Structure formats: structure tokens, C-alpha cells
Amino acid sequence: MKTLILNTTNIVPNGLNNQLIFRFPNSVLFKKSQIAFASCSIYYSWYNISSLLSNNTFSYNWIDGACVAKTYTITIPNGIYEISTLNQYLQFIFIGNGHYLVNSSGQNVYYAQFNVNPSRYAVQIDTFLFPIALPVGFTNPAAVPFPPQSFNPIITLPSRINEIFGYIAGFATAQNLNNAFVAPVGSQFVSKLANGTISCISTTAPNVQPNSSLLFSITGIDNAYANPTSIIYTLVPTGVSAGELINEKPPEFIWNKLIDGTYNELRLTILGTDLNPIKINDPAMTIILVIKDADEMGFKF
Predict the structure, then answer these.
(1) Which domain, by its residues, includes 165?
(2) Quick one: average pLDDT of 121-147?
């Protein structure tokens, strides 16, 4: 068997770190040869939320002291996020816009939040009734104006980021003006408490990491049972967290027939779950392929 090693030096400088080229020292004739993925070391560094994925914005609606509703669009910095860190970023935005109060214990009080609901395998969005006057014992450090009517902030999830949370595109929570919103009777997804708290449960499974696996596509093979036909292996970052090293080595080689012909190079492309090229942020990687010639398989020409 012949071993091909691809690393940082093989990366095509396209800014995505997702294509690697192995150039043979001389043209090579392959006939009845097979190729397999042998091992890989790569850092878990591809974003789940980014401008490239078009899933990095959502908005909330807030009513000011003049009873004017204003929409605030939130652009999330490219990164690897959990629901908890998205909630922290929402709180960060609330602080920046002055949309919070402080209770008698000195804790910031926010009027919307994202939570994981494990028993429902869902993401829960809670919104809370913002009052018309400062509650007893509270302080208002940002001097946020109180509206003439109480309301809940409206959280709106546009297309693409809705999939992260498990809601339909364009989903919006209720404004609950003057605490008058009535939850649909018998609804499994929306509920309301007497104090104005509204809880919404996602209606589909949240897809927090849209690219939960990487697909390795390589030129020179024609796998009739794969789509695209060039897929040679699937890498799943099992047991690692963001930024950690993935060490992958299959228990045995999965051989794919190389298309007969003369080769100057082999090109490997890393695809996301959606079969589109994905951006790998950390170029430090080593991918090893092995080639088995016909004579090593007992073939005779």
C-alpha cells in the first residue's frame, strides 16, 4: 500500500481551509487501484452560526415610553455557540440597549431568555411582562423609559437561524400588550402564566450545529452509492468540544475504486452536512489516505 499525507502545506489558499491537493512527483497510472481514508487529525473549528451560513441574525421588538414599538436587529458574531451562550449574548444586547432592570438583590432582570428544555428535546423561549412603573425594590440604572402599557418583548426568528432553535421561519413571540394575550387552548407549544410570562416550545428538533459531521470528497473515485459520488468518508466530532482536536481512525479501511487513468494530483474537499464546502477556521490538520494497487489485491493484467 502507498500512503498519502495531506497537511497544512497541501491546503488551497481559498480562505476556507477546505481543499487540499496532493500532487504526485510524477504522473501515475492507476488501473484497478483502490483508495481509502486512513486517519485524520483536525480541530473542531467550524462555526455553527456565521454570515457564511446566513443564520446569524434575529430581532426583538421593544416599546418605549412614548408607546412607540422599535425593532432591534441582533447580528451574532461568527462563532460556535450553544443555546446558553446565545442567551448570554441576548442579555449582553439588552444591557447595551438599556432594556433591563435590577432587582433588590442586585441581579439584572431581563425580559426574554432562551433555555434548553431537555425533557421536550426543545428550545424554550420565555418572555416576561415589562411593567409601566418601577417595581418596589428595583432600580433602573439605564433609565429605560416605562411605557404607558405593559408588554412582552417580541422575539422574531428569521429564516435559517430558526433551524438552530427548532422553530418555523419567521416565528415571533406574542407582545401581550396589557397582559391581554390568551394562549391557544390545548396548545402544546405556547403557555402563559397569570403574571404575563409566556413560554414557547420549539416545534421541531433544534439543529444547533447545522454541520454536525464533515464529508470528505475526493477526485478520482466514482462511488455509485454516494451523493455526490466522490464521497469517501464521514467525520463526526464525537466526544470533543469546540476548539478541541479530533483524532479519527476507522477500525478498518473502506476501499473505493479509483477511476482508471493517469493522475498528476488528487484533490480532497471537505463538505458540510448540506454537501456545500465548509469553512474550517483552523488550518492545522493531517489527513492520511492509502492506495492499494491491483497487484496487492491479486489482480493480473
Answers:
(1) 57-201
(2) 97
Domain count, the chain: 2
Q: What is the residue-averaged pLDDT of the chain?
A: 94
Q: Domain ends where: 154, 178, 201?
A: 201
Q: Three cell numbers at 225? A: 452509492
Identify the pLDDT of residue 76.
98
The answer to the question of residue 71 being in a domain is yes
Please give the DSSP secondary-structure letter assigned to residue 59: E
Please report the pLDDT score of residue 294 as a whole number.
79
| Last residue of one domain, picked from the residues 169, 201, 233 | 201
What would the pLDDT profile of 91-116 be if each residue is shown by its tens digit?
Answer: 999 999 999 999 999 999 999 999 99
- Percent of the chain at pLDDT above 70? 98
Q: Do you know the residue count of the chain?
A: 301
- Rounded Cα gap, residues 131 and 147, in angstroms: 8
Within 8 A by CB and 6+ apart from 156, the residues are 58, 59, 60, 61, 71, 170, 171, 172, 173
Angle ∠(236,50,279) on CA atoms, nearest 5:
50
Residue 89 shares a structural domain with residue 218: no
Beta-carbon contacts of 276 under 8 Å, excluding residues fewer than 6 positions away, are none
Do 115 and 28 share a structural domain?
Answer: no
Residues 39, 263: Cα–Cα separation, whole Å:
23
Beta strands 285-292 and 2-6 are: antiparallel
Claim to verify: residue 191 and residue 62 sit in the same structural domain = yes
**What's the pTM value of the predicted model, to 2 decimals?**
0.90
